[in-house]
Amino acid sequence: MTHPVRPTRRQFGALLFALLSTASRRAFAAGGNPKDNGLGGTGYISPMPDPDNGLGGTGVVGVIRGFGSVIVNGLRISYPSNAEVTIDGEPANPAAMRIGHVVSLVARRENGAYSTKKLDILREAVGAIEFVSDRKMRVLGQKIELGRNVKSDGLAVGRLVAVSGLRLPDQTIVASLVEPVAPGAAQLLGTVTRAKDGGLEIGGQRLEGVAESMLGRRVLLRGAQRGATLDASHVADAPWLPRGAERFVAETYLERYGSTVTTASGLDLGDANGMSFRGVVRAVVSFELDPAGGWSVQSFEPTESLGAHGAAGPRRMEQEAPKAAPDQTPPPSPGGGGTGFSLPGAPAEPGGFGPGGGFGLPDPGGPGGFGGPGDMGPGGPGPGGPGPGGMGPGGMFHPPGMRRR
């Protein structure tokens, strides 16, 4: 059953920019090498270039459950051996992908099979463990619950880790993979909200070096933790939905408040009465943009019911996200005139602290090969198969800068 809903002005403006940016991409900065503004300089670009030129694909966001192609949200999606893969915005070998990573991609369907040429992986938090007890921990101020298949062996205060997973509506991260990493810049991915003291924060982590214009936006930032504050040196827009798609299949936590259903990332699906649940659920949702500019929910596949756990309750946005005309880039953060930024990589330590080189899903293996295009899988995500462990991504991230008008 189809349930047309309407996004808010803030959500529609952000989506309109994401869609039209594929048709009016900004020119690269001359010379090709972006300027790193250093601490306090927040060159503003997307860490994830458009996956496809033009519209027409299916945007897929969710936890990787298996390989032999890549299995996400019950879909088997093939990719070539030379597929473009990024991890935290940095080019990576396809073999660096792991079961438990959260992937974003645009898939094309041909003869009943899905395929893609680009896969983007972003991890929610990269930093030192500040607290760990039982199956809960904290990294960069983020409350983290370990998923049922994530092992806690070897997790200790001070360990440097990268956490992948999905956020609950209250912004707690439910980890699907925890990987050890080498020393490097702290990294945080999430929606910027207003702190009680009037400043800005992500999931309770106080932020410095982030412009007011970022309020309400989902961003990827890197910087240094100074006491209770994360001092951001680099900030980049990180839309939840991949660009270059006209329909989406996304794994997310949903919260019902009255008759309104909202994703954990803040997307308001409106009066979605066809989704019969109470409180919070984890689900795979298919939806698309209808001709009138609203959301049309095509299917809803719940996989876990949490009741009131993780609920955020009624929310009020103090400020709408700034609007950007179709021919303009989003407004940059203050602190310098650079056109881009350079992020240090965070390679995984060899071996790790548990089986498979990480703490995540049992033996969180990489892809076992590049099979032919796969067909539609089961209706909901199932457990991924094991595979050998290995090294994570490393090196340096140097995305192209973007010229400002």
TrEMBL record:
<protein>
    <submittedName>
        <fullName>Uncharacterized protein</fullName>
    </submittedName>
</protein>
<feature type="signal peptide">
    <location>
        <begin position="1"/>
        <end position="29"/>
    </location>
</feature>
<feature type="compositionally biased region" description="Gly residues">
    <location>
        <begin position="366"/>
        <end position="379"/>
    </location>
</feature>
<feature type="compositionally biased region" description="Gly residues">
    <location>
        <begin position="351"/>
        <end position="360"/>
    </location>
</feature>
<feature type="region of interest" description="Disordered">
    <location>
        <begin position="295"/>
        <end position="405"/>
    </location>
</feature>
<feature type="compositionally biased region" description="Low complexity">
    <location>
        <begin position="396"/>
        <end position="405"/>
    </location>
</feature>
<feature type="compositionally biased region" description="Low complexity">
    <location>
        <begin position="341"/>
        <end position="350"/>
    </location>
</feature>
<keyword id="KW-0732">Signal</keyword>
